[in-house]
Amino acid sequence: MIGSHLCDYLLARGHEVICLDNLVTGRLANLTASLAHPRFCFVQHDVILELPPFPRLDHVYHLASPASPPGYTRVPIETLRVNGEGTRRLLELTHRHGARMLYSSTSQTYGDPLEHPQSEEYRGNVSCTGPRSMYDEAKRYGEALTVAYVRHHGVDARVVRIFNTYGPRSDPEDGRLVVNLITQALRRRPMTVYGNGTQTRSLCYVTDLVDGLVRAMDAPGTKGEVINLGSPEEHTVLEFAQMLREMTGSDSELLFTEPAVGDDPHVRCPEIRKARALLGWEPQIGVREGFLRTIDYFRAELGVTPAPAVPHPASDGNRPGEPDPGPSTPRSSAPAPAGRRPAPGRPSPP
């Protein structure tokens, strides 16, 4: 999803773009606009394998990895290899071409954080054998490999840690928060809230994220840097669910259940002072505006017509979009571990 928007952005800026994807989690339909462009070339290929020959390259964006829990738990070995062997191949390619490279890492390198919000200096709280380890540890290794090539071979590379990003072209079966809630609401199915919904997330719209990626690649002084990109606006999952239910006009109930994959972070919010200072970047698209664009996309994708607003039962929350202390009788709960600091300005989870 992010890669297709990046291709469109680069083409609009006058670049020639070569896109590699093995389509394990990518969708060729996302590239419909780019495929018709004379300066675009698509190659179906797995970067774990030996790379095909290329013309001289200036920039290499490495976004090749499953990124959703359903994706990386379905192909765990491939996820580890694409961030290990694939990263090495792309770093060698960058070195040979005298190009610049951007390695896209993730907020999951912070694990279930004990520091909040998360700054680039925080070393994280990650299980190397947990249910998300194939992704968390793969990205941590990819970061280490990238920085090693910077230090030992002088490669002009940087690392960007991407926080929760959403927007059009997401796979309806992606399995992450925004996609799940919107598609369930539009289909009038129960909207899944993991735990009791008091865990927090911050959501960045895809075009803002792509702008940050390009700035990180182009800005002077970013060689060897690690930079967070994401929205510092933080809400509980329950607040997002109520907001999306209201905005879709859905009458779906909220279904509280155990997380689909364990080690679900209780808080997630980036510290972006570094992005502001080095890149002059911060998100421009507010949550409600981004949600409207994404809802419109999924209405078309799913063939769902807009519905009138409906009243919602008072038993599962306050008015949509307002803070909620959590349901009185959740089917499961996910209280913060002992010693965990709650999100700033929010009550401790029940």
Describe the structure.
With 350 residues, the protein is α/β, with parallel strands linked by helices. The chain has a domain at 2-165 and 205-232 and 269-284: NAD(P)-binding Rossmann-like Domain (Rossmann fold). It has 10 helices and 12 strands. It has helices at residues 2-12, 32-35, 69-74, 76-97, 133-153, 177-186, 206-218, 237-248, 273-279, 287-302; strands at residues 17-21, 40-44, 59-62, 100-106, 156-162, 165-166, 191-194, 200-202, 204-205, 226-229, 234-236, 254-257. The protein has a 4-stranded parallel beta sheet with strand order 3-4-5-10, with helices on both faces.
Structural class: alpha/beta
First-last Cα distance: 36 Å
Give a count of the beta strands, DSSP E runs of length 2 or more.
Answer: 12
- What Rg is obtained from the alpha carbons, in whole angstroms? 20 Å
Provide the helix percentage: 25-40%
Low-pLDDT stretches: 313-350
For the residues shown, what is the average pLDDT?
A: 89
Shape: globular
Helix tally equals: 10
The CATH architecture of one domain would be 3-Layer(aba) Sandwich
CATH H-level superfamily of one domain: NAD(P)-binding Rossmann-like Domain
Strand residue percentage: 5-15%
Strand order across the biggest sheet?
3-4-5-10
The CATH topology of one domain is given as Rossmann fold
